[in-house]
Design the sequence.
């Protein structure tokens, strides 16, 4: 039997050694000051309100710590990340400055997984990687450091349990997101393991239509050809389903999708039959939920004039904070301070789109209450820079 290299999933004990680097790159005295003053900051006509939960979560902190510790542990070796460690450009750029290289994604260095040598070190990101990629890396004999978030691993266990019991995983997520790809790969490890990925309630409704014989098998397979497991047969594989989700999705929508599917199965078969046909466990991570609850409370109860949401444009959890905010006031998703162009113009990511746009007259005259929050992969230093730029142009 072919031996596989061990995966390192714990600290190298070098946290204190790298602490000065982490503090220099990511700490913010302004953010600490605002938190100490009841999460509020007054500057002239602008009142800044910070959400009570925002920015780095435990899983992100841990992943970044491990990356810095890995560099300190192996100063003379080539160190690679399989992809972005988290979805934040500042963090990934800082890792490049440390000499870490990326095997894929927007920062890819040109070295492929096939070119990894036993003396190399490879870090798996917070989103995790697919079973196939992990097996390939373990066979090289390289040092493997795993920073996969514990919440993501919990979803993997749930999906694996569905597969073992012959339930198809219906995953609420983005089919091409690193985390969802890694999660789906866990389902197909087992003979009966299958999956289908639904992006939102609209796509979930199409699955429900098929279950209730309102949509043909051919149409369903055509619409979801990019988002199902190999050999997926809805006639067989939508008889028994278990719900799971990408941990950073909008929690209220994940719950609605689960309820839609449960009701649909109940109508197609019978409610008495549901325990044999339906499984659901909430797999939204607690940090995602806390940040969503905090921005909802801020936007709904404090009466913000506008919201600034700070985070990488490909960050799923950041995008959902914008969606929540927009229910109550204008909201702008900015990646960093460079997006605030002037008092008149702001560059930001359009909600429900990958388009980056500019909006004029975004900062009204007179006293303003401005809410600020950030996705779980956004450093406090970046949030500080956004606030400072806002106050400078106001």
Sequence:
């Amino acid at each position: 039997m072919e031996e596989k290299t061990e995966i390192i999933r714990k600290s190298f004990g070098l946290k204190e050694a790298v602490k000065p680097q982490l503090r220099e790159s990511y700490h913010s005295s302004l953010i600490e000051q605002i938190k100490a003053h009841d999460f509020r900051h007054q500057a002239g006509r602008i009142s800044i309100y910070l959400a009570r939960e925002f920015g780095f979560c435990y899983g992100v902190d841990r992943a970044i710590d491990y990356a810095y510790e890995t560099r300190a542990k192996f100063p003379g070796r080539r160190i690679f990340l399989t992809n972005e460690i988290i979805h934040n450009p500042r963090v990934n750029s800082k890792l490049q400055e440390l000499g870490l290289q990326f095997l894929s994604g927007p920062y890819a260095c040109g070295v492929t997984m096939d070119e990894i040598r036993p003396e190399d070190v490879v870090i798996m990101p917070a989103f995790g990687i697919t079973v196939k990629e992990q097996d390939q890396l373990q066979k090289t004999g390289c040092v493997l450091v795993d920073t996969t978030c514990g919440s993501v691993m919990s979803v993997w266990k749930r999906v694996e349990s569905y597969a073992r019991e012959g339930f198809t995983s219906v995953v609420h997520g983005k089919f091409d997101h690193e985390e969802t790809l890694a999660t789906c790969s866990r389902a197909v490890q087992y003979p009966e393991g299958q999956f289908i990925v639904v992006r939102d309630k609209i796509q979930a409704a199409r699955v429900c239509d098929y279950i209730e014989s309102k949509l043909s098998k051919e149409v369903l397979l055509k619409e979801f050809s990019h988002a199902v497991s190999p050999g997926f047969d809805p006639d067989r594989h939508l008889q028994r389903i278990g719900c799971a989700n990408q941990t950073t999705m909008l929690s209220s929508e994940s719950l609605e999708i689960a309820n839609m599917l449960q009701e649909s199965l109940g109508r197609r078969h019978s409610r008495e039959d549901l325990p044999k046909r339906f499984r659901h466990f909430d797999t939204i991570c607690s940090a995602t939920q806390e940040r969503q609850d905090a921005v909802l409370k801020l936007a709904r109860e404090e009466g913000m004039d506008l919201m600034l949401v700070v985070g990488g444009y490909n960050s799923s959890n950041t995008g959902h904070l914008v969606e929540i905010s927009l229910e109550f006031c204008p909201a702008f998703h900015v990646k960093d301070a460079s997006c605030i162009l002037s008092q008149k113009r702001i560059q930001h990511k359009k909600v429900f789109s990958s388009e980056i746009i500019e909006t004029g007259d975004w900062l009204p005259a007179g006293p303003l209450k401005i809410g600020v929050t950030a996705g779980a992969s956004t450093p406090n230093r970046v949030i500080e820079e956004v606030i400072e730029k806002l106050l400078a142009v106001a």
The domain at 29-56+287-393 is CATH 3.40.1010.20 (Cobalt-precorrin-4 Transmethylase; domain 1). The mean pLDDT is 96. Residues 258 and 278 are 9 Å apart (CA to CA). The first helix runs from residue 15 to 26.
